[in-house]
Amino acid sequence: MQNAITTGQIARIHASAKAAGLDEDSRRDLLEGLTGKRSSRDLTRQEAARVIDRLNVLTASVAPPGRRPGKTMSGRWSSVLRALWLAGYHLGVIENRDDSALIAFIERQTKITHPRFLIDREDASTAIEGLKAWLSREAGVDWSAKHFVVQRGQGGAVTSSGEIRCPKRNVIAAQLEIFRQLDLPCPDVRLEPETSDADLDTMMACLGHQLRHHLRGRQSGRAQRRA
């Protein structure tokens, strides 16, 4: 089939998933969430490109080569937990975005020493909900909020639309609210119904960079006044 995924894309997906610390189940879960398909061989070239873009985002926060396996996230729930941890970093709540800090948090929440040992859904839920509760408490993220979202197919036709829960949109809404509450120059950012998932990742990271810059400046100013 002319539009079928290429062998190079398949190889890149598997290599990037490995670099991101995803096991086979996690990789297939990621594919299914983005495309509705669990096998990379069933993807179109456009779907494969979307998966590769997402994996590039995930690998950006992975520990550098040479890091001991015990200090790097892996396991079925690692992508969800890492995404939440990175959201906390972009909200200015979490100082250390490194996997080792996330692993320590998971151990405090579950008494399980590494996320690869998170087998039971109940244990995973303890870590996930604990992290979401922290971000709600410290940054005001409303995980229950719904957003009107429009999704389009390859030809541009609308494939679905409606009010849905979208964690990334909830995090971005919380970021913008923090700018307002702190009376910081608010970036000209609009959450459009058709904003893609990849664009949401980029938007969240850009807002996070600006927010952390402002927060560091405020902390530095307070320290100088105390001195």
Automatic annotation (TrEMBL):
InterPro entries: Phage_Mu_Gp16 (IPR009363). This is Regulatory protein GemA. Pfam families: GemA. It comes from the Bacteria.
